[in-house]
Amino acid sequence: MKDNLSHPCFTWDNLSVSHGAVSGVSSPGQRGLEFVDIHSHILPGVDDGPATLEQAAAMMECARRHGTAMLVASPHASPAFAYDRARAEQLLDALRARAPSGLHLIRGCDFHLTFTNVEQALRSPADFAINGRCWLLMELSELTVFSNTGALWRRLEDAGLRIILTHPERNSLLRQRFDLIERWVSEGRYMQVTAGSLLGDFGGAARRFSIRLLEAGLAHFVASDAHDLRHRPPRLDLAFQWLVRQYGEAYARRLVIDHPRCAVEGLPLDLEGFRPPPRLPWWRRWTGGRRETI
Ligand SMILES: [Fe+2]
Fold this sequence. Notes:
CATH architecture: Alpha-Beta Barrel
Order of helices and strands: HEHEEHEEHEHEHHEHHEHHH
Strand content: 5-15%
CATH class: Alpha Beta
CATH topology: TIM Barrel
Distance between the termini: 31 Å
Shape: globular
Number of domains: 1
Structural class: alpha/beta
Strand order of the largest sheet: 3-5-6-7-8-9
Radius of gyration: 18 Å
Largest sheet: 6 strands, parallel
Number of strands: 9
Bound molecules: fe (ii) ion
């Protein structure tokens, strides 16, 4: 993989980490399992997530009840849904006032690769990055991959951003271009798989492609991409349990706790030796799985 760790990252010093978004959160080791969900549409009334504060509050309750300790609110920044950092901050404050104990909300956005977005992100990367640091969620079109995509990404990376491609397994175009994903990862981009994809919520093709990414060591994050309580709920626990059964707890933790936490804190991922252990045969998965279980 290309060494892009030399890219500057925003530091605690030059950015305000307001609202105690991260401080005071003990480590997973201290408090047991605490999932970090880097992708959710939970801000009310700004995109295709919840319409009201009440609905958003119910989603927060659901997330916390199922083990999430940090939730990145990542509204779309797309031609269909304008993204406004100031508005997002206001809504985050309103949600924090309603958040259940132990759930910390963090600002992010679901960045679509448009000319306007790129220009704005080059001017002010922290407006779009997770927690104002350096990791950027990026959603690609299902219709085409523009020939200048790599060039645009390099400009964003030169501005200090690290790119996480969201749910490639749900993109029918990318499902036919595994080679592209391999190349992008080798060039220093990262992949986020949707928790529900691992469970079959988005169909067999998305599930199979998710597993292919995992087994190739090309999936770095698992996130909910929550939009509601019913179809795309803010839950990581079921996917985590599935991952533990298939690959063991250590690998599962990296996808839903360790790597996402690095993204929130603006740290590089340590990918030395990052590769899933071989899957157990089916009969062992269903008769107790690995010894290291939750
Ligand atoms: Fe999203």
